[in-house]
Amino acid sequence: MRKLMADEIAETLRQRAAAGEWGDDLRLPAERDLAVEFGVARNTIRLALGRLEEAGALVRQVGRGTFLTAEQSPTLAAIIKRMEGGSPADIMETRLLIEPSAAAYAATNASFAELQRVRDAHERAVYVTDVHTFEKWDAEFHRRVFACCGNNLLRDINELIGIVRNQPLWFDMKSRVFSEDRLQRCRQEHGVIVDRLLSRDADGARNAMLEHLQLVKRNLLRR
Amino acid sequence: MRKLMADEIAETLRQRAAAGEWGDDLRLPAERDLAVEFGVARNTIRLALGRLEEAGALVRQVGRGTFLTAEQSPTLAAIIKRMEGGSPADIMETRLLIEPSAAAYAATNASFAELQRVRDAHERAVYVTDVHTFEKWDAEFHRRVFACCGNNLLRDINELIGIVRNQPLWFDMKSRVFSEDRLQRCRQEHGVIVDRLLSRDADGARNAMLEHLQLVKRNLLRR
DNA sequence: GTAAATTGGTCCATCAATGGTTCTTCGAGA
DNA sequence: TCTCGAAGAACCATTGATGGACCAATTTAC
Q1: Is the C-beta atom of B96 closer than 7 angstroms to strand D?
Q2: Contact B215, B189 (CB under 8 A)
């Protein structure tokens, strides 16, 4: 869902930078010049540059100019690279550690509207039959639990784990252990979690989430 | 029962969307244009789009347009960017959630050599006096606990939290609450954790880490 | 050393396009 | 006759983008 001029320009600039244009001193043309070159207003160029700056692709200095950043933080890149290859066992262990508490926080911290969103995700997952759509709503269900636990860092950590879970190999793995029976059981457990959340039963929600994830783990790892 | 025109239009739109029309940017024509195209009033088009929106097939944004839904997963980089702005309270809550368990895992999973590295980091921190160096070894101590808990994902999550903790503002915050007394107490608690780890006392290590982080939290948040 | 030019940062008024809302009117069918 | 789908129109709020003015930091020219 793009179609913003600024985004298109940002993408073009990123490609041209990667191609080595401005490679000598890493300095981009002035904003006013870029505006003329692209045939847009300076504000639009600034928006595009802002995106790239946010992404860490460049830095801007008043009076000097706009410069491509030499390189990203290597540690960060290394961590991301490593995380993408996370093992299913590690991931399930981590989820077992974090999610029950997130459910407990959600039971006490969430607004009713937020909890309704959790229930909504659950109910949508009830009426789907294909594994792909179910996976989507399953992930959304867990995402929404985190969304209402009142801790943004925890929410982000869940997003990271979610990205790892969406690797193609993972999907193959989940497809292999898929069965209508298990899906039914999974739905049922989601229902229990929703009930506990809505009745503000923190310990109950924690335990329900714990049991649910233990089942998921058993299914996934065949233990 | 005769079909409603709005439902017919909704069905037509759904089919055309599925066929890949508007596939490039997922943007539908404006309501006024669709009204002309279908030869109906804008009200009718809005009703049809409302059905599709309810069904989750599209989203509408004032001033922008109507877009077919496409699950857009935020990139790792974007999430990490967001994490960098994490609040101290969230971070401490998350650490309290994760680290005690990491310590427990470490007690049971680590090799003796790995535990020695934890002890080593602790002992190095004993003989430093300036806050900056102490912070470095403190972070290293916790890092090494994670390194030997046998879960690489957990270790990486700790690294990410560590990056957040190293933001300049955080350092100011820690400097403000710094005192020789607190530093001494902190060292002492690290010592207890090391002892419990080396005696393979999982529950003991968990509790020691819990108490330690609760102190850190109290100091940092002044509660 | 100083003045002028250059450059990014900020703000504002404006415009067009778009979805959101509300109202009146018309006509076919129950 | 009454109901309700549909047409048609007016107006609102938001958004993307333009164009311009001015500021602050830096570099360049003299």
Answers
A1: no
A2: yes
Segments of chain A with pLDDT less than 50: none
- φ/ψ region of A71 (left if φ > 0, alpha if ψ in -120 to 50, else beta) reads beta
Between CA B172 and C1' D26 the distance (Å) reads: 30
CA atoms of B91 and B173, how far apart (whole Å): 14
CA distance A96 to chain B (A): 11
- Taking contacts as CB-CB distances below 8 angstroms, the residues of chain A near B81 are 54-56
Cα atoms found within 13 Å of the Cα of residue A128, Cβ hemisphere only? 18
CA dihedral A49, A51, A52, A54 (to 10 degrees): 120
CA-nearest of A109, A150, A114, A133 to A187 is A133
Please report residues of B whose CB lies closer than 8 A to that of A91.
153
Q: Is B154 on the interface with A (CB under 8 A)?
A: yes
- Per-residue pLDDT of A73-106, as tens digits, reads 556 667 777 777 788 899 999 999 999 999 999 9
